């Protein structure tokens, strides 16, 4: 514990008491003092058990002698509290003592970090995403087989036929368009898209139309897609209610 | 005309393995529909598509697998699990195309060792949100395993069937649906009109009967309406009426095309039911689609798990014997991926709830790969049930081995059977049991036949 931390904690304690400071200051106000000194009310109505104001004003010696008094009432009290706390706590730990405190935790952390790193390294070698119901033989866990799951392959089925949509009608759909474009804005070859020639031509037409109308950039991905990908990789939660107010990228 | 008798050569050919090998079934549907998919063409598929064949060891030594030509000895005699699948009996290169089928063959054996029945969720009409509320029943339950139904009774037994000639619409993609409409539905328009006429005639007769009964007559005086008596105008009116009653129309179409029943999600059902009369299907396959084969997929014929395990020394056991599950992939936090657990060579689904497989227990085999553990990390789990989904995948539900009194005991016994760990109740297993070589006299005494006369057996032996 450094001195600065004690200071800051004390100041925090002060800040906490700020809202309640009003009645307390009034306790020491001249009006209250006069009221308490009046014969009609011998003790203060707010704090009947409190000592006389004159005694609480000279609080420094009383706090030293009696540590279980009322909480700090002023900046001076707070500073005094720091002194008292440090005195009660005693001197800081020596280096040797500190090492002893840290040692067991440190060893545990090192161990778990090492296990985690080993696991990560192995998991990186296992790119296959297992689904419930998948059948595996020992061969499927081998490095040769696992390496095959790292390489993307062209889809075997024609997506356009399967989903039964018209590509040309979807020229305003940037996520569809960018699925069939490379990072540099070129139209993907049918051996990568897996489309039959008729649908490949239709998709190509939709892409050319989107670019020709200025709806889609011709040299890179659509900013909306970039924003979406960034959000995905950064792990920011997608929240549509926030999206309305702050409409993503400014361009 | 006398039927032609099959020649001896022909009979031999027909009985041969060459002809008895069934044609391969279509493989599991691929799930890679995105533009870039990650898969392996050589990975073990979710279910076998080819028949697995094996042969006797004496025949195997000669390369005789009952096929057209002997198989090479070098690649077939070394395996301890002689199982092959034949892709082609003969090819243009004059070879028999075969590979090892030990993957699926052994998976089946391991699955059958689990001794779990294939079950299906019992459909309940009242909405329930607890998993435990859904009773499971065997797929061989005669109430839901009926195939021999006359075509005219199909609609009546819709909730007891698993096989339908029509598709399950909820499982179709838009493109497939459009193709189905154009290829299979549109050509049957005239047949559907005839079907509707029949239905209309039945309805009219029913209404007339009801009216007659209301008027206090025992029978209808008029002759019953026949389907051919219905005019086109009447049919058009009926069609218009049907269009405003969508559920009724769907029931008609479903009956005509023999569509697999649909069950909307439970939240949707509550909405629909409040609006109009809607009969929710009771078919257990309505929600997730009917199976492509028999719902058991032929992997087991057990009907129940309500049997008691017996141990030769410890007697009847409270719990079923737990099994070891492989941690195929440990769970990770970044990105959050659950652990993949394999039981009997099948990736299992882990149940929800507080268990070893759940998030609450951190650390250990489920979270870390320890390369020092030979053969990989394993867990003891209890297999709860097996199910075959509409894609033909085996879904095994596993739970952590029960930690109660019986559970811990079951695990100890299972370990002991594997030769691991110490004996149950802390007793040390006797390490060096002296095995004396038995002499012939002892063996004869031990396995001697009873002294009673065994005429039948002797007779049989003599024959």
UniProtKB/TrEMBL annotation, chain A:
MF term (GO), any: structural constituent of ribosome
Cellular compartments per GO CC: mitochondrial small ribosomal subunit
SUPFAM superfamilies documented for this protein: Ribosomal protein S18
Compositional bias of kind Low complexity: 34-63
UniProt keyword terms in alphabetical order: Ribonucleoprotein, Ribosomal protein
Chain spans, region Disordered: 12-78
One GO term (biological process): mitochondrial translation
Ranges annotated as biased composition (Polar residues): 18-33, 64-75
Annotated family: Belongs to the bacterial ribosomal protein bS18 family.
Listed name of the protein: Small ribosomal subunit protein bS18m
Record organism: Cladorrhinum samala
Lineage: Eukaryota, Fungi, Dikarya, Ascomycota, Pezizomycotina
TrEMBL record, chain B:
Signal peptide: none
Annotated InterPro entries: Rbsml_bS1m-like
Keyword vocabulary terms for this entry: Ribonucleoprotein, Ribosomal protein
Alphabetical list of Pfam families matching this protein: Mit_ribos_Mrp51 (PF11709)
UniProt key word Ion transport: no
GO CC annotations on file: mitochondrial small ribosomal subunit
Organism domain of life: Eukaryota
Coiled coil regions, renumbered to chain: none
GO biological process, one term: mitochondrial translational initiation
GO MF, one annotated term: structural constituent of ribosome
Biased composition (Low complexity): 33-43
Keyword Hydrolase assigned: no
Protein's recorded name: Mitochondrial ribosomal protein MRP51
Top-level taxonomy: Eukaryota, Fungi, Dikarya, Ascomycota, Pezizomycotina
């Amino acid at each position: 514990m450094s001195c600065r931390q004690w200071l800051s904690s004390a100041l925090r304690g002060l800040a906490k008491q700020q809202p309640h400071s009003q009645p307390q200051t009034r306790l020491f106000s001249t009006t209250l003092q006069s009221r308490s000194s009046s014969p009609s009310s011998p003790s203060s109505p707010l704090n009947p058990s409190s000592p006389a104001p004159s005694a609480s004003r000279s609080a420094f010696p009383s706090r030293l002698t009696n540590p279980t008094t009322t909480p700090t009432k002023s900046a001076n009290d707070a500073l005094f509290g720091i002194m008292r706390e440090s005195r009660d706590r005693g001197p800081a730990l020596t280096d040797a003592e500190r090492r002893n405190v840290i040692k067991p935790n440190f060893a545990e952390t090192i161990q778990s970090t090492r296990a985690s790193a080993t696991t990560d390294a192995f998991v990186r070698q296992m790119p296959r995403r297992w689904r419930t119901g998948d059948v595996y033989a020992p061969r499927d866990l081998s490095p040769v087989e696992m390496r095959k799951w790292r390489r993307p392959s062209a889809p075997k089925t024609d997506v356009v036929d399967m989903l039964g949509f018209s590509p040309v009608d979807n020229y305003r759909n940037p996520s569809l368009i960018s699925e069939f474009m490379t990072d540099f804005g070129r139209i993907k070859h049918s051996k990568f898209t897996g489309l039959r020639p008729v649908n490949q031509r239709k998709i190509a037409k939709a892409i050319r139309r989107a670019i020709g109308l200025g709806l889609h950039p011709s040299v890179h991905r659509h900013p909306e897609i970039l924003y979406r990908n960034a959000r995905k990789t950064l792990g920011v939660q997608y929240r549509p209610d926030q999206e309305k107010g702050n409409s993503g990228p400014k361009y | 005309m006398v039927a032609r008798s099959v020649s001896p050569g022909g009979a031999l050919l027909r009985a041969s393995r060459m002809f008895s090998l069934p044609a391969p079934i279509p493989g599991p549907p691929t799930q890679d529909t995105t533009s870039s998919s990650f898969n392996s063409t050589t990975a073990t598929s979710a279910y076998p598509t080819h028949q697995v064949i094996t042969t006797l060891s004496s025949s195997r030594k000669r390369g005789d697998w009952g096929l057209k030509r002997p198989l090479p000895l070098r690649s077939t005699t070394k395996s301890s699990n002689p199982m092959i699948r034949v892709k082609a009996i003969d090819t243009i290169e004059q070879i028999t195309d075969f590979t090892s089928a030990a993957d699926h063959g052994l998976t089946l054996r391991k699955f059958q060792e689990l001794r779990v029945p294939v079950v299906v969720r019992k459909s309940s009409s009242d909405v329930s949100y607890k998993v435990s509320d859904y009773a499971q029943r065997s797929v061989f339950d005669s109430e839901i395993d009926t195939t021999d139904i006359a075509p005219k009774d199909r609609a009546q037994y819709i909730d007891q069937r698993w096989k339908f000639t029509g598709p399950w619409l909820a499982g179709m993609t838009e493109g497939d649906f459009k193709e189905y409409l154009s290829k299979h539905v549109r050509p049957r328009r005239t047949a559907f009109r005839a079907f509707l006429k029949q239905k209309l005639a039945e309805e009219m007769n029913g209404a007339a009967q009801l009216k007659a009964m209301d008027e206090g007559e025992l029978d209808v005086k008029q002759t019953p309406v026949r389907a051919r008596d219905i005019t086109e105008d009447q049919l058009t009116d009926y069609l218009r009426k049907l269009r405003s009653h969508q559920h009724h129309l769907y029931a008609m179409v479903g009956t005509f095309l023999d569509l697999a029943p649909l069950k909307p999600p439970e939240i949707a059902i509550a909405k629909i039911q409040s609006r109009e009369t809607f009969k929710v299907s009771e078919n257990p396959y309505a929600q997730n689609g009917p199976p492509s084969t028999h719902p058991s997929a032929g992997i087991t014929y057990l009907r129940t798990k309500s049997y008691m395990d017996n141990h030769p020394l410890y007697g009847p056991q409270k719990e079923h014997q737990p099994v070891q599950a492989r941690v195929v992939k440990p769970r990770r936090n970044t990105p959050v991926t659950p652990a993949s657990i394999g039981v009997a060579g099948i990736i299992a689904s882990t149940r929800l709830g507080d268990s070893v497989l759940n998030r609450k227990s951190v650390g250990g085999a489920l979270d870390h790969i320890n390369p020092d553990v030979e053969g990989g990390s394993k867990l003891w789990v209890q297999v709860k049930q097996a199910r075959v989904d509409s894609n033909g995948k085996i879904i095994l539900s596993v739970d952590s081995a029960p930690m109660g009194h019986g559970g811990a005991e079951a695990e100890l016994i299972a370990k002991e059977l594997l030769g691991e760990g110490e004996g149950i109740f802390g007793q040390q297993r006797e390490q060096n049991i002296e095995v004396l070589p038995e002499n012939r006299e002892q063996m004869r005494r031990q396995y001697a036949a009873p002294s009673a006369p065994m005429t039948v057996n002797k007779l049989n032996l003599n024959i």
